[in-house]
Write a structure and sequence with these properties.
Elements (H helix, E strand, L loop, with lengths): L3 H8 L1 E4 L9 H28 L6 H29 L4 E3 H34 L4 H4 L2 H27 L7 E3 L6 H7 L5 H34 L4 H30 L7 H25 L2 H17 L1
Parallel strand pairs: 1-3
Antiparallel strand pairs: 1-2
Helix pairs in contact: 2-3, 2-10, 3-4, 3-10, 4-6, 4-8, 4-9, 6-8, 8-9, 9-10
């Protein structure tokens, strides 16, 4: 027997309005987001290449950073091209299958990044609180295991959340005031009971966001206590400077998430939510490599050597 609900759902289209309410801003926004995407691609891939070719950067901290850059590159590539397309075409529709594909791959990256940030906090905790044991504790096997855990949890979370969407039915083409296929898009477009999907969303989003944030804050509590116990002011500054880039990235990432959670659910807040979502999905992947390169003397030193070498070779 043919499942008419599933056949009907597969034919349903979702229309992402994006920023179509401001036709005069379509070209400026396209140029802005294209520039951000270009910087994101160059910054993250450049960071991966620099870490790969420089033996000085073959340490656990930069190993994790290279994977963070990879996740940011993937996430930006999943989201931004569709955003750019919707700014220049009149047909802003996307199939349910296409929307679910974008959502599931995006969830994998976001969940993996949350775990990766917690792993990087653990790395800084061991480096500052137990410096003599750092080399032994952060072995290459442990680093590879922690990165594998981050990707695996991202995939597991994506599979569970995607399954909770596949059980929904979609009965008609739906116009959504958004630019990205996030969970609320599917709930708005669904014509079936959403209770199960909402429970799964609540559990997994809160489990990932709050558990990883608590882990990070706990590690940094121990780090700050250790730094305050240091007698040398230069020692305290050096210890804190090694955490500054990661702490900045964590603050921006989780600050944006908490900000979006705190926005009241009203029609007047849609523009604020959309701008916050742009910052979360498009801008943050660009900021991370800039934060780590501009605040990190070792990375700046390698960049300077590469630039000097290129000038001399010419």
């Amino acid at each position: 027997m043919v499942n008419t609900d599933k056949n009907q759902s597969s034919a349903v289209m979702i229309i992402l309005l994006g920023f179509s309410d401001y036709p005069e801003l379509q070209v400026p926004l396209f140029l802005l987001f294209f520039t951000i995407y270009a910087v994101t691609v160059v910054g993250n891939l450049g960071m991966i290449v620099i870490i790969k070719i420089s033996p000085k950067l073959h340490t656990p901290m930069y190993f994790f950073l290279s994977h963070l850059s990879f996740v940011d590159f993937c996430y930006s590539t999943i989201i931004t091209p569709k955003l750019l397309e919707n700014l220049v075409v009149k047909d802003r529709s996307i199939s349910i299958k296409g929307c679910i594909t974008q959502f599931s791959t995006g969830v994998t990256c976001v969940m993996a990044e949350m775990v990766m940030l917690a792993v990087m906090a653990y790395d800084r905790f061991v480096a500052i609180c137990y410096p003599l044991l750092y080399t032994v504790s952060m072995s290459s096997k442990l680093c590879a295991f922690l990165v594998t855990v981050a990707y695996t949890w991202g995939i597991i979370s994506s599979v569970v959340l995607t399954y909770s969407l596949l059980v929904l039915s979609f009965c008609e083409t739906k116009i959504i005031n958004n630019f990205v296929c996030e969970y609320s898009v599917f709930l708005s477009a669904s014509c079936s009971d959403k209770h199960f999907s909402e429970i799964i969303l609540f559990i997994f989003v809160n489990l990932n966001a709050f558990c990883t944030l608590i882990i990070i804050l706990t590690y940094y509590l121990f780090i700050f206590v250790t730094i305050l116990k240091m007698h040398s002011a230069s020692g305290r500054y050096k210890a804190f400077s090694t955490c500054a880039s990661h702490l900045t990235a964590v603050t921006i990432f989780y600050g944006t998430i908490l900000f979006l959670y705190c926005i009241p659910n009203s029609k007047n807040s849609w523009l604020v939510v959309k701008v916050g979502s742009v910052f979360y999905t498009v801008v943050i992947p660009m900021l991370n490599p800039l934060i780590y390169s501009l605040r990190n003397n070792e990375v700046k030193e390698i960049l300077k050597k590469l630039i000097d070498f290129k000038i001399v070779s010419q």
